[in-house]
Specification:
The protein contains 18 helices and five strands. It is mainly α. The strands form two sheets. It has a three-stranded antiparallel beta sheet with strand order 1-2-3. Strands 4-5 form a two-stranded antiparallel ribbon. β4 and β5 form a beta hairpin. α5 runs parallel beside α7 and α6 (147-160) packs parallel to α8. The radius of gyration is 21 Å and the shape is globular. The two termini are 34 Å apart. 49% of the residues are buried. Bound molecules: iron/sulfur cluster. Iron/sulfur cluster is lined by residues 105-107, 110, 112-115, 298, 300.
Length: 388
């Protein structure tokens, strides 16, 4: 869309037709079970972790686990993590007041409300929202511990139309390439402004991580299929690395969020540093996610429904109630696998093969502090994910 000069599509729903459920009774039953699960789970309930601190509640947790990519994926811990965390964002909102708020819904009708409005010092609206990936990408990954600078980098990204994960990773690669010092928040703001101004340097940065790495001769390039990695270090959290490597999207955490059992203890508990059964784990998460994504539900419903079976079944019933399809909780993963197969076929037709399902080479030999781990998952395990 950006290449075609399209910045946004706005839909005016005035006078539009309402969706009428095919089976209202079933829809209401499923919806109630799903809502009850959301309201009961510690992560998603009103006043729970996501509602109080946003997704950035993860900053301190992932940092503690040694999996917060820092200074262009050269460490798994950032000494300034607390300053860019969800707790710090909530404190700024509380102290500055005005329009600053946590517990903001990015979507009409959301009952989890994990978004926020980050305020300027005088309480006026600076940007919505500073979430986990964003505060990490411009924060820890660039060595920046200044929330106001991170908020401004987010505002510029929203204004120009940049994805904050790709933009933050690109600045980090530029820093490693010697263009700026790690931690230089004001320099990063100036650099990102060049993208919107379309200066010669801005046009390189605007091409993203891989182009910037080539331009500045950087070998530590955290991408899969050309897409840069999000805020979980695959050397410290192996299952999410399997998802990054194998999903048809490129390095995408949302395609199969194994962080749930590997870190949050949701849907079971597995050792993040171990390779064991991570292929199966990622495949199951990718399948369930493909189903949820195809419904239009926000992915954060996954936390309660993974822990509360009535919520899982309720989600499926709500889909059956709206569409009239005969879907139950047992159909979620098999239908998700069918979706994955179609996506995979699309990629194959576009020229991708299993050779594209690989982690960047540097992760195989550079040890990541503090666990001093390298990427150890075998290519056979990666290839097994889509072997079904
Ligand atoms: S729709 Fe999802 S991402 Fe948006 S505020 Fe609600 S829980 Fe958060």
């Amino acid at each position: 869309m950006g290449a075609k000069g399209v910045k946004a599509i706005v839909v005016d729903d005035a006078g539009g037709a309402k969706v009428e459920p095919a089976d209202k009774q079933l829809f209401d039953k499923g919806r109630k079970a799903l809502v009850d699960a959301i309201r009961a789970h510690d992560l998603t309930k009103p006043g729970g972790a996501l509602n109080s601190y946003g997704t950035a509640v993860l900053v301190n947790i992932i940092n503690e686990a040694g999996g917060l990519p820092t200074r262009n994926f050269s460490s798994g811990q950032f000494e300034g993590a607390a300053k860019i965390s969800g707790e710090a964002i909530a404190k700024a909102c509380e102290e500055r007041g005005g329009e600053g708020t946590m517990g903001h819904g990015c979507h009409p009708g959301c009952i989890m409300k994990c978004s926020n409005i980050y305020p300027y010092e005088d309480g006026s609206h600076h940007v919505s929202c500073v979430e986990y990936e964003t505060t990490w990408a411009f924060g820890a990954n660039c060595g920046i511990d200044d929330l106001d600078a991170i908020a401004e980098l987010t505002r510029i990204s929203n204004d120009v139309g940049l994805d904050t994960i790709e933009a933050g990773n690109t600045i980090a690669v530029a820093m490693e390439g010697g263009l700026l010092e790690f931690g230089d928040g004001q320099g990063a703001i100036k650099l990102l402004n060049e993208v919107g101004a379309q200066t010669p340097l801005g046009r390189i940065i605007g091409q993203g991580v891989e182009a910037t790495a080539k331009a500045f001769g950087v070998h530590r390039v955290p991408t899969v299929k050309g897409q840069s990695m999000p805020a979980y270090e695959p050397r410290a959290i192996k299952g999410i690395g399997v998802t990054y490597a194998t999903t048809t999207m490129g390095a995408d955490h949302t395609a199969g969020y194994t962080i749930a059992p590997e870190i949050a203890g949701v849907g079971g508990k597995v050792d993040p540093l171990s390779d064991e059964k991570k292929g199966e784990l990622s495949r199951t998460f990718q399948a369930a996610t493909a189903f949820i994504d195809s419904t239009g539900y926000c992915l954060f419903i996954a936390f309660p429904i993974l822990d509360i079976p009535e919520g899982w079944n309720g989600m499926a019933e709500s889909v059956a109630g709206v569409t009239g399809m005969k879907v139950t909780g047992e159909d979620v993963v098999p239908l998700g696998l069918e979706i994955l197969k179609m996506e995979r076929e699309f990629n194959e037709q576009a020229g991708f093969s299993e050779l594209d399902d690989r982690m960047p080479e540097f992760m195989r030999y550079e040890k990541l502090p503090p666990h001093n781990e390298v990427w150890t998952v075998s290519d056979e395990m990666l290839d097994s994910v889509y072997d079904f």
